[in-house]
């Protein structure tokens, strides 16, 4: 059994006009799955809202208080560059984190083998005490911390193939040596992170502007995947960003849907070998709606073993 988790509450987060991170992103993914006759081949669930204590597993408790105190009564406000709040933003973000926690519950207790969380706002740029880059809470970092705290996992891997490096997740990996973090990303764009890793539990794979399938697959085949195999993860959490697609306006990589199918295939193999298949995948970026929905479809097909 595989599980797809979403929640309409995630659409309460509004970034305002002309912002690429739209509620339509999650809607289009679901519409693509329905139109491709895939949606009835897996279980569906509505996520719960993460509690303050759960968010505090990877965030400063004052961050939650600050965001809630900053919520506008109406309209949209900017709290830092490109990161906005609307009246329902914290509710939406709590449900995005809650989806990941529900997914971890499901793969741990055996009710699901693999999970896809079709949620927003994204999370991998959110730092310990600061929202950044469209992200309010770091969904995958809280998820990893929850797996350690609630279930006693010792080796949780976070794998990120978004076009932008997950600086917030890197910060979590620096605080938590039990987690292992691998990230491929376009070099010299937001958030302008250092391209090389200086800690043993992180693998960075910067890709030059205009890199395509060959460079992406070579980086993972030679660096990311062998290191993940050496780590022997008990659980894999994926930051599934699809903005490296050639049609996406937010980056300059030249990936295609089949590249996301390829990396997912490799991750599933590793999960089956070391983690009893336990994977929780969480939506991050992807801002061309057509490319996003098709890429997510191919990712989910492989993740869920839907070979048709």
Helical/strand content category: alpha/beta
Largest sheet: 8 strands, parallel
**Can you tell me the number of structural domains?**
1
CATH topology: Arginase, Chain A
Shape call: globular
Looking at CATH, the homologous superfamily is Histone deacetylase domain
Number of alpha- plus pi-helical segments: 9
Mean pLDDT: 97
CATH architecture: 3-Layer(aba) Sandwich
Rg value? 17 Å
User: Which spans have pLDDT < 50 for at least 5 consecutive residues?
Assistant: none
Distance between the termini: 17 Å
Give a count of the beta strands, DSSP E runs of length 2 or more. 10
Determine the fraction of residues in helical runs and give it as a percent range.
Answer: 25-40%
């Amino acid at each position: 059994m595989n599980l797809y988790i979403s929640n309409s509450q995630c659409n309460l987060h509004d970034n305002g006009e002309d912002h690429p991170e739209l509620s339509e992103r999650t809607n289009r993914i679901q519409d693509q799955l329905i139109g491709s006759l895939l949606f009835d081949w897996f279980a569906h669930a509505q996520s719960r809202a993460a509690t303050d204590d759960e968010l505090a597993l990877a965030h400063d408790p004052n961050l939650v208080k600050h965001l809630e105190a900053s919520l506008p009564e109406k309209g949209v406000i900017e709290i830092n560059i490109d990161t906005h709040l609307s009246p329902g933003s914290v509710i939406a973000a709590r449900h995005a984190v809650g989806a990941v926690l529900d997914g971890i519950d499901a793969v741990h207790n055996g009710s699901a083998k693999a999970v896809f969380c079709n949620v927003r706002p994204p999370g991998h740029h959110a730092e310990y005490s600061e929202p950044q880059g469209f992200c309010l809470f770091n969904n995958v970092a809280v998820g990893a911390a929850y797996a350690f705290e609630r279930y006693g996992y010792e080796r949780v891997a976070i794998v990120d193939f978004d076009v932008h490096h997950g600086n917030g997740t890197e910060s979590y990996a620096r605080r938590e040596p039990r987690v292992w973090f691998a990230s491929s990303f376009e070099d010299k764009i937001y958030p302008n992170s250092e391209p090389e890793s200086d800690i043993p539990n992180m693998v960075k794979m910067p890709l030059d502007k205009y890199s395509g399938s060959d460079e992406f697959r070579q980086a993972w085949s030679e660096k990311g995947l062998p290191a993940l195999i050496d780590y022997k993860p008990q659980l894999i959490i994926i930051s599934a960003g699809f903005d490296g697609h050639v049609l996406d306006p937010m980056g300059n990589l030249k990936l295609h849907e089949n590249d996301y199918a390829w990396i997912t295939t490799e991750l599933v193999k590793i999960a089956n070998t070391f983690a009893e298949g336990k994977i929780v995948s969480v939506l991050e970026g992807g801002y061309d709606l057509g490319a996003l929905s098709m890429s997510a479809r191919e990712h989910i097909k492989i993740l869920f073993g839907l070979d048709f």
